[in-house]
Design goal:
- It is a single chain.
- By secondary structure, this protein is α/β, with parallel strands linked by helices.
- Helices cover 37% and strands 18% of the residues.
- The chain has one domain: Rossmann fold (3-Layer(aba) Sandwich).
- It has 9 helices and 10 strands.
- Helix 3 links the parallel strand 1 and strand 2.
Length: 263
């Protein structure tokens, strides 16, 4: 091989390496844009025409969404806007903002129970959500106890884990709150079955599920937030109780898992 040939070959290799670097950089940029879209929580008038997000198109509904992400579209799609159902909303927070069941009650006539450890939300539920019974307690595996709860100033990412709230830059103020089990709440309300279970309680999901007799109440659809720390426990719980993931929602909702009973 002549010196000129070697030089040309080296130049080609250098060119290929630079091209690969550019491709990798492009992938990083595209990935960052995708994350940004998800962080924007998929605003209601943002339409997608290709790729995995195209699956959102048939789920989109007119008007604004109350849920933080696409949870409201999913529950409406699953039940095909069925009227007069019953829900259990655990970690309900504000009566409307970032709420998965607001539209079910106000638009479709559903009723149910909202469980949240923050008692300051109770008055607005009584005023604006007359078909919802608000229970200001911490859902756990034991009733009639107390736990420490960390509450940031904005009340959005409250949790029983200070490490978890600190992750979002707001460790919050500690307060003691009473505990209950979801089975106790449903028994006291005289509810024998529920159609929809929504649960978003920032790493406390496994304990809340341990205090819930799912075989007795058999919700048709479950929407549950699944952070990596507790995801495997959640998957194992639903597998034990013969629930399966609803595949059509896996890619459109990166924050939650959606389960239905095994048919």
């Amino acid at each position: 091989m002549t010196n000129e040939t070697r030089a040309a070959s080296a130049s080609r290799r250098k060119y290929i390496r630079l091209t690969l670097v550019e491709v990798i950089a492009l992938v990083v940029v595209v990935s960052a844009l995708t994350v940004t879209v998800y962080r924007e929580r998929l605003r209601p008038h943002f339409f997608f025409s290709e790729g995995p997000l195209a699956e959102l198109v048939p789920l989109q509904k007119g008007g604004s969404r109350s849920s933080m992400g696409v949870e409201e579209w999913i529950v409406r799609d699953y039940f095909q806007d069925r009227r007069n159902g019953v829900f259990l909303d655990v970690g309900a927070n504000h009566y409307q903002d970032r709420n998965n069941t607001y539209f079910l009650e106000t638009g479709l006539g559903w009723s149910g129970i909202a469980v949240d450890a923050l008692e300051e939300f109770a008055a607005d539920y009584k005023l604006h959500r007359p078909r919802t019974r608000y229970v200001a307690m911490f859902a756990s595996d034991v009733a009639d106890s107390r736990v420490q709860f960390f509450v940031p100033d904005n009340n959005l990412i409250a949790s029983g884990s200070k490490e978890f709230t600190s992750r979002y830059g707001a460790p919050g103020q500690p307060r003691e709150v009473p505990t209950t089990t979801l089975t106790s709440v449903l028994d006291q309300a005289g509810i024998s079955n529920i159609d929809y279970l929504s649960m978003d309680i920032e790493l406390a999901e496994p304990k809340a599920l341990a205090g819930f007799d799912i075989d007795r109440y058999k919700p048709e659809l479950v929407c549950i937030e699944a952070h990596p720390e507790v995801r495997q426990q959640i998957l194992e719980y639903f597998a034990r109780h013969e629930y399966v993931l609803v595949g059509k929602y896996l890619r459109v909702d990166p924050h939650n898992l959606h389960f239905e009973p095994l048919r």
